[in-house]
Write a structure and sequence with these properties.
Two copies of one chain form a homodimer. Chain A is built from 13 helices and twelve strands. Chain A has a six-stranded parallel beta sheet, with helices on both faces. In chain A, strands 7-6-8-9-10-12 form a six-stranded mixed beta sheet, sandwiched between helices. By secondary structure, chain A is of the alpha/beta class. In chain A, helix 7 runs parallel beside helix 8 and helix 9 packs across helix 10. The interface between A and B is large, with 46 and 46 residues. Strand 2 of chain A pairs antiparallel with strand 2 of chain B, so a sheet runs across the interface. The structure holds a DNA duplex.
Chain lengths: ~325, ~325
DNA sequence: ATGAAAGCGCTAACAT
DNA sequence: ATGTTAGCGCTTTCAT
């Protein structure tokens, strides 16, 4: 029996007689033989690998994305490379180049690269952007502007008239989306707002930033705070507890992302749930589509819905007298 | 100029005249040329990749491990494959086989595979175990037994005489280590203890398990609880807050792992800090050592120290009268 | 110090 | 339906 027949039994089963194929597969199983992917890739030009690059492997938001991406990839019998861009554009670029030949495509999560660079990346590999949208590139984004609108509406319905947004990194696409949503929703529901921050510390937007911003939030006199993400929100919550400020009696708090942490803190955090696992899956999905269709066709952009999860950190605003008392 | 010279410029720079090499490298840089790793691997037998398999990508403990592993690998210009074993032994085995040809080595984190299987895995690829020790296999373990001792000593010094351990999965190596440490420390410090659980729900030992165990903990009459991990501890904390039980006034709580969450909850959790990022780095380190030395030499086993981090969930036990009151 | 050539494990034409 | 063969991009003898 020739090597070609064996090869065909794996790659084009139909092209081989049933009996032969079964014999091949049986022996292969016994020998634990599996075609060497590297060698296969050398000739087919496809590696069977995808890469996922995130800005920070320490950030829970990306864990969920990674989990989704890995699961989806595995279902298609693809393996996934991960890399941590360390919040650095240049490291991210190096990573892309290092991966280039080893993968069929790359999912770039919340890329720190400038738009121009993103637009000019050459394929292969095919790249799919997550939480970023740039002309000519396939992408998956989460509708966080709408999430913000839901949050503001919720606050307005509770009676809040004045809120503050603790902003994330100014250049961040997601942050811009959220601010846009805020502007629109605030106008629609007649609530005033103020923006604090950005609060990005080293290593991304973190808990500590929230801790440090809590008092500034109090000083604004707002009755509700919307945080750029859950980590910041929980930081605020933590400092508020130290300060003895009641949540939500004295101040309502809303987060973003709905990372597992959000449900675990006391009181459980009201937050805008972003479908992160699904976003990871969708990104790989779009990647596969694109791999199939070729880079000639128009790249798709998928938008996933956000959903407000009301837990226990939001409630009616305090009565005026009480606030006035506090502020002195 | 021949391909051989180019190849040598990259792989054995010394074997090529300075002038030639520089010329090669210059042109390569200009063309963004990099040797194709797959093709190289085909002939050298080394891929330049390592695999990391974790039981659950959703578990914060493993994020830290992954972060460390990725960082260490990247420093050596290795790329890393990740895969999620989904807490399943068979999936884990499949993953190992799928990776086999694509990596030089695999880091197996808290493997769910039985010892016999682990011992009989064939190399290549070289495997390094994390949080598991089996004869003949290289491994990195964290001294969680000692961490447990530190925790018990701390409680004993505060005056606690009766505590309860909320156990993790019975078959888990780490869990066994912790129980062993507990037994020894309890005897040394004359502390009585009781074991509750195991509490493993679907998807590992989680927050929810803690929530569900909190009341059982109260019923034991113990003045302190040691949880298998931080997730469980935080679950207990959360339920306790709902129940209006003061921590640490009425009950002290100690976690394990020191995941970021531990510092973020209110009150901040006293916990045994395990050097997870370093464990990830160490595992890849050991892997590289082994790759260099060949599988003939005796496999090393590295043990990393644990350290108790005292935050705000531990304090002196309540006075008897108060407890007696509570229990009726 | 450099080049020529074999061959790593596989797939894809092209025979038969 | 199966076999033969070229060659993917590299490294590594073996010559020179």
């Amino acid at each position: 029996m020739s090597v070609a027949t064996v090869s065909r039994s794996f790659t084009v089963p139909a092209s081989v007689a049933n009996a032969t194929r079964e014999r091949v597969l049986a022996v292969a199983a016994e020998l634990h033989y599996e075609p060497n992917r590297a060698a296969r890739g050398l000739i087919t030009g496809r590696t069977g690998n995808v890469g996922v690059i995130v800005p920070d492997l320490g950030n829970p938001y990306f864990h969920a994305v990674l989990k989704g991406a890995q699961a989806r990839a595995r279902r298609a019998d693809y393996a996934v490379f991960v890399a941590d861009g360390q919040e650095s554009a240049s490291e991210e670029e190096d990573l892309i180049n290092a991966m280039r030949k080893q993968v069929d495509g790359i999912v770039l999560c919340s890329s720190r690269l400038p738009t121009a660079k993103l637009a000019s990346l050459d394929n292969p590999p095919t790249v799919v952007l997550l939480n970023r949208r740039v002309a000519g590139r396939a992408s998956v984004v989460v509708d966080s502007a709408d999430g913000m609108k839901q949050a503001v509406r919720h606050l307005a319905e509770l009676g809040h008239r004045r809120c503050v947004f603790v902003s994330g990194p100014r250049r961040s696409w997601s942050n811009q989306q959220r601010q846009q949503g805020l502007r629109a929703a605030a106008r629609a529901h007649r609530v005033e707002y103020e923006i604090l921050g950005p609060v990005a510390g080293a290593g991304g937007v973190q808990f500590q930033s929230g801790v440090e911003t809590a008092e500034q939030v109090l000083e604004t006199g707002a009755t509700a705070v919307l945080a750029y993400n859950d980590l910041v929100a929980v930081g605020i919550l933590s400092r508020l507890a130290e300060l003895g400020v009641g949540v939500p009696e004295e101040l309502s708090v809303v987060g973003f992302d709905d990372i597992p942490l959000a449900a675990m803190v006391t009181p459980p955090l009201t937050t805008v749930s972003l479908p992160t696992v699904q976003a990871g899956e969708a990104a790989v999905d779009v990647l596969f589509e694109r791999l199939r269709s070729g880079d000639s066709v128009q790249p798709t952009s998928r938008k996933l819905p956000a959903e407000l999860i009301v837990r226990s950190t939001t409630g009616p605003p305090p009565r005026r007298a009480k606030r006035a008392l506090r502020s002195h």
